[in-house]
Amino acid sequence: GAFATNGYMPHGAGTDAKGMGGVGIALPSGGMAPASNPAAQMYVGNKLTFGMDWFRPFRSATRLLVNTDNTYRDSGSNDFFIPEFGYARPMGSSSSLGVVVYGAGLGVDYGAVWQNVGTTNTYMLLKLMTIAPTWATKVGNHSFGVSLNLVRENFDVRGLENFDVASQSRYVGNTTGKGEDSASGIGVKLGWMGELTPSLSMGATIQPQTSMSKFGKYKGLLAEQGKADVPAQYGLGLAFKATPATVVGFDVVKIKWSGVKSFANTTPAVANSGLVVAGAALGDDNGAGFGWKDQTVYKLGVSHQLGKWTLRAGYNYGKTPVQADQTFFNTLAPAVTETHYTLGASWAVSNSTDISLAYMYSPSNEVKGTGTSASMTNPDLKMNQNSFGIALNVKM
């Protein structure tokens, strides 16, 4: 679903991490921990995890069109339900095998025609689901893990009919309104976690760019004939045990949107006619894209044990990848939120079962486009978000 928080990535992986601002590279918690760092697989134990995130983003664009209303159009698709699943099984005392399943993505449903751009209501949805079989091993105070990321993407877009012409698109008939298309790819994620002292842990993750197959139905819209690779991500984390009951975690994650042409390619200044071509057609290797910049995401979280309860809070900040002179196409992908505040808790129902809850609030942020009221170039984009997560962890 449309759960863009750090670009199109969620602010964290798993309900426990989401309650701590997304922290998880050096602070493993819950059965979804290997999604943050494959090395965390060693700390999960024998566990089964089911979870669901209810995500509510509110998005709008000010169209800045000649002789038309200048109002916000709130996106109609405001409820998304994103499942998570994890299973871990120790293989003796020094290694562990498991799998985690998690999602990402973004989209809009404006319920209105984008004037000068299309003849049907504007809609876009990009969904990603990752199934990650994971193996980890422990050597002394250091654990090492590797995940095989089996990624499935689904993409659908409507309402861009004016671009489905030879002057705009390299592949007319494969630009808009073709229904949902899917792509797949296989990637890898490597992780390390080390206990440097009894109270200080450190972790690191490397995830190279995942090459995806092409969306054939939309090869005339997305750059590289409909290709949307998953960007490379690199992370570093620290966890400090302030008291026996209190742990503070800090992560920094770099998301390399610049390596994915459909997201990184810029859109030239758009003329009043709505043409985006400047030497390249839509669908070309250098065809117009979202113009996203790389992101550095900072995550800070705290966890405190209180009897059968574990209480969590966190903060997550990542400057939007959306640039002020690139808001035209980002009307479809208004990933403009930057600051996220989170709360979370787990309750040990029994020795073998606990229930986790998480809440995230991202206040409204706006990217003011460089457009003027006399042009249709770059609208202003706004978004705020709430999400509620629940997960069940069962020791097997």
From TrEMBL:
Subcellular compartments: Cell outer membrane
Kinase among keywords: no
Membrane topology: Multi-pass membrane protein
Gene Ontology CC annotation, any one: cell outer membrane
Transmembrane residue ranges: none
Major location (coarse): membrane
InterPro entries (UniProt xref): OMPP1/FadL/TodX
Keyword Membrane attached: yes
Organism domain of life: Bacteria
Keywords associated with the record: Cell outer membrane, Membrane, Signal, Transmembrane, Transmembrane beta strand
Any matching Pfam family: Toluene_X
Family statement drawn from the similarity comment of this UniProt entry: Belongs to the OmpP1/FadL family.
Protein name: Aromatic hydrocarbon degradation protein
Species this protein is from: Candidatus Muproteobacteria bacterium RBG_16_62_13
